[in-house]
Amino acid sequence: MKRTLIASGILMMLGTSAHAADDLQTIRNEIEQMKASYEARIQSLEARLAKAEAATRQADAKAVQADAKAQQANTKAEQASEVAAVAAQPAPSRENAFNPAISLILAGTATHSSLSPSTYKIGGFIPSGGEVAPNARGFSLGESELAISANVDPDYRGNFVLAMAPDNTVGIENAFIQTLGLGHGLTASAGRFYSGIGYLNSIHAHAWDFTDAPLVYKSFLGNQYADDGVQVTWLAPTESLLVELGAEIGSGRSFPATARDKNGSVAGALYAHVGGDYDESNSWRAGVSFLGAGPQNRNYADTDASGVATSNDFSGKSQTWIGDFVWKWAPYGNATVHSFKLQGEYMRRNETGDLTCTGGACSGVPGAYQSTQSGWYLQGVYQFMPHWRVGLRHDRLDSGSIEFGAGLNPADFPILAAYNPSRNTVMFDYSPSEFSRFRVQYARDESRPAESDNQFALQYIMSLGAHGAHTF
User: Fold this and answer.
1) Fewer CB within 10 Å of terminal CB in the chain, N or C?
2) What is the pLDDT, as a whole number, of residue 430?
3) 364-407 confidence digits (pLDDT tens)
4) Which of 220, 336, 389, 380 is nearest to 289 (CA)?
5) Buried (b) or exposed (e) across 95-113, using 16+ Cβ within 10 A?
6) 49 vs 451, which has greater pLDDT?
7) Rg for the chain, CA atoms, rounded
């Protein structure tokens, strides 16, 4: 009995194990079938996705090609329309085939001075005859300028500036032609122009930092030296350093020369300038210049030892050497907020020849005359905030040594008595833009011996039309 029960239990256990094994195999088979089915479906989906992506790319490419063709068609249509419009217009006349730049400078002043401008003289120096006196007292117009400039053709350019003085006189300030295509850094000009000597001389007065020129310019160059002749300049083909050389030859139409009716020119100038960037915030320029002239009967009025009016003439040679320097600062080259400019020039002049005094106690016989004189100025202008600047300038002259030959009495030439003029000037200006400026200026002028002149000035300067902006 016991054996029968044991045998039955063993058989039941074996049957249960066999059935469990069959179930496991069935489950494995089902899993394998599911994996195969999913892989087939995934492959099918991937194939459909690749096909769809290829179709999309092909459609995009066709769309891009269509857009390009459409743009080409539009461009051709626009060009055809422009050609048709131009063809429909009448041909421009020869007078309208160029577009000259036309500008007008308007300036005015209100001046108060303790001494009369009509008696202004620079002691120790032969009067230059230029417009060197302070502006007339009260309200007056400043010098107005009408400028026209344009390219003549690809090779030449023309420039014309007409100046209208406060006394209603009109004069030609500049009128010259200039080459455009000489190459090799060369430029030539012919006509009437401001000389390139020094630093300030070639800059028009409305662009000066003060209302008037320094004393050394007034006494040595008659305010500003201009000539009729030919000018040639050369700029070296350098990247980091500015090198400019210039030469001029002309008629000597203004002080210290005197134009005369004689073949050949009577004045010439040479100058050299170098400069560049010191760093990203600082730049500089320095130069040396020479002006040689042969004045003939250069006349000026004076009084003799008795106070009788005389007329004096100088004929001989005049040689002027000029050294100039300017330093400019603006943070990282941006001068719209803060900037500073330090500028100075030194001049030394030698004159030898004959001086003739006529009238009063003068004999009218020429006598030898020789002088060596010098002068300088130094000025600084600081822009402390946008549009607002303040400036300070100091001028000084040295009448130097003057030698009179036999027959001339130094007492008959009182204006040439030894004296060292000086002047201190402060200015404050506001510039709403590069084309307008309002300025107030005060100067303590000691140009006249034993007399000091307190000069106050209000000034406006306006630029109309196609005129270049004046910036730092």
Assistant:
1) N
2) 97
3) 778 999 999 999 999 999 999 999 999 999 999 999 999 998 88
4) 220
5) eeeeeeeebebbbbbebeb
6) 451
7) 43
pLDDT digits (tens, 9 = 90+) for 415-464: 999 999 999 999 999 999 989 999 999 999 999 998 899 999 999 999 99
User: Pick from 138, 134, 129, 140: which is nearest to 165 by CA?
Assistant: 140
75 Cβ contact partners less than 8 Å away, ≥ 6 residues apart: none
Distance of alpha carbon 12 from the chain centroid: 115
For residue range 353-365, list pLDDT tens digits in order.
999 988 877 877 7
In this predicted structure, what is the pLDDT of residue 263?
Answer: 54
- Listed by start position, the domains of the chain span 101-465
> For the chain, what is the HEC assignment?
CHHHHHHHHHHHHHHHHHHHHHHHHHHHHHHHHHHHHHHHHHHHHHHHHHHHHHHHHHHHHHHHHHHHHHHHHHHHHHHHHHHHHHHHCCCCCHHHCCCCEEEEEEEEEEEEECCCHHHCCCCCCCCCCCCCCCCCCEEEECCEEEEEEEEEECCEEEEEEEEECCCCCEEEEEEEEEECCCCCCEEEEEEEEECCCCCCCCCCHHHCCCCCCCHHHHHHHCCCCEEEEEEEEEECCCCCEEEEEEEEEECCCCCCCCCCCCCCCCEEEEEEEEEEECCCCEEEEEEEEEEEECCCCEEEEEECCCCCEEEEEEEEEEEEEEEEEEEEECHHHCCCCCEEEEEEEEEEEEEEEEEEEECCCCCCCCEEEEEEEEEEEEEEEEEEECCEEEEEEEEEEEEEEEEECCCCCHHHCHHHCCCCCEEEEEEEEEEEECCEEEEEEEEEEECCCCCCEEEEEEEEEEEEECCCCCCC
Q: Are 412 and 361 in contact (CB under 8 A)?
A: yes
Q: Which CATH code fits 101-465?
A: 2.40.160.10
Measured in whole angstroms, the distance separating CA 445 from the mean position of its chain's CA atoms is 29
The CA distance from 265 to 293, in Å, is 9
Cis amide linkage into residue 256, ω under 30° from 0: yes
pTM of the shown model? 0.77
Q: Looking at residue 315, what is its pLDDT?
A: 92
Cα 110 off chain centre by: 28
